[in-house]
Amino acid sequence: MEHGAATAPLPDAFLHFLESNGIDPSIYTSIDSTPRYIRLKPGFEDCIEDVESEIKCKPKKLEWLLGFYTLPPHIQIASTNAYREGKIYGIDASSGAAVMALGISPGDHVLDLCAAPGAKLCMILDLLGDSGSVTGVDAARHRLAACRTMLQKYKLGDRCRLFVADGTTFSVIPEGFRSDSESYESRSEERMDVFKEWTSRRPWKERKKAKKCPTPQVVSKSHPPELIYYGQHSGVIGLTKGELYKTVAENEIAGYGYDKVLVDAECTHDGSVKHIQKFEHWGWVTLQRRVLDAERMDNLHALQLNLLTNGFRLLKVGGSLVYSTCSLTVAQNEDVVEQFLKENITAELTEIDAARKWPCKGGRIQKTWRFDPLTSQTSGLFVAKFRKVVI
Ligand SMILES: C[S@@+](CC[C@H](N)C(=O)[O-])C[C@H]1O[C@@H](n2cnc3c(N)ncnc32)[C@H](O)[C@@H]1O
């Protein structure tokens, strides 16, 4: 079977995967007509004219998503000055929609539980501006390091903390919470060991320890969270390790948890046509092993449910959580949502106000949404939003 998008035909195993998941294979032929998206960093709106003169093509304003523009798919932005100087981002509009679904308000403390490489994290920080905080977590050290580089490039790290940690067990709450029982005196002996201004140069003690026992690239559930970056106003400076990693009782999270949580979960990425195309170079056998393997699929389902469950646990009462994946399968989306709702009586699926303007279609469950290249002219994405209620 020939597909316009792929220079090689899609393999039978992948076509079978699409068919058994009710996914229309023609989305993989629409890549040539799916635009490229850029987002302007707030405050740099004027640079759109410079971009236009550099790429010799007029970016078209996206009516349904503030700050986003479309470009023809073949246009590259990496060599433009605006991109190199951190004034524009390359980010798909569906990803922007997932962030908008959070409904960020000034002062929010936001948790991004699968944060790397960080396109959504940057957008959250841009929306927050000079208030609140963002905590980014990812199990893959190298990917989170790339996220840190991105924060630095876009000068967005001031209110951010990044932890290499497993999102299914991560338990660090936002800063600002102190138990009354802990007096300043009881902490004074630890005062020597407080976090100072962040520097990329690790203290000698840490470097020696890392040399002795090299840290894993992808961490497991039992690995304690590791802070790999924090900004000046992230609330970390001045704390001791004991304070930062303080264990909080479940009932306290209801009051002191995060205002907003994004669980942009690990998935098969089958909705990302560009990602699937990469297997032409990596070899379709790799796709079989990395994506279609039955055991991996079962593990993925469990991982997605566990990420969603833990993200929700860390949410304060009244707070909102957005679950998204770039898979178009029901198993990784609606099935996860259904199972999660069955197991969590304080979770309520809610309307996404912004979705009224989105060029997407409803999911199999009411109030959930699906973007795909044919319907939305974007990459594929599933989005659902929950609120934590009191029962
Ligand atoms: C879809 S990507 C996230 C994309 C990101 N939100 C962005 O906008 O750039 C999924 C991420 O989940 C991470 N991941 C996989 N398993 C994880 C786990 N158990 N805990 C935390 N992150 C995990 C992967 O390393 C990967 O970076």
Protein described:
With 391 residues, the chain is α/β, with parallel strands linked by helices. The protein has a domain at 12-33 and 91-175 and 248-388: 3-Layer(aba) Sandwich (Rossmann fold). It is built from 16 helices and 14 strands. The strands form two sheets. Strands 5, 6, 7, 8, 9, 10, 11, 12, 13 and 14 form a ten-stranded mixed beta sheet that branches. Strands 2-3-1-4 form a four-stranded antiparallel beta sheet. Helix 6 (141-153) links the parallel strand 6 (133-138) and strand 7 (160-164). The model is unreliable at 1-7 (pLDDT under 50). S-adenosylmethionine (SAM) is lined by residues 95, 114-120, 137-140, 143, 166-168, 264, 266, 303.
Structural class: alpha/beta
In total, the number of strands is 14
CATH architecture of one domain, please?
3-Layer(aba) Sandwich
Distance between the termini: 53 Å
Low-confidence stretches: 1-7
CATH topology of one domain: Rossmann fold
Question: What is the CATH superfamily label of one domain?
Answer: Vaccinia Virus protein VP39
- Number of H/I helices: 16
Portion of residues within helices: 25-40%
In the CATH scheme, the class of one domain would be Alpha Beta
- Round the Cα radius of gyration to an integer and report it: 21 Å
What's the overall geometry?
Answer: globular
* Helix-strand pattern: HEHEEHEHEHEHEHHEHHEHHHHEHEEEHE
| Largest sheet composition | 10 strands, mixed
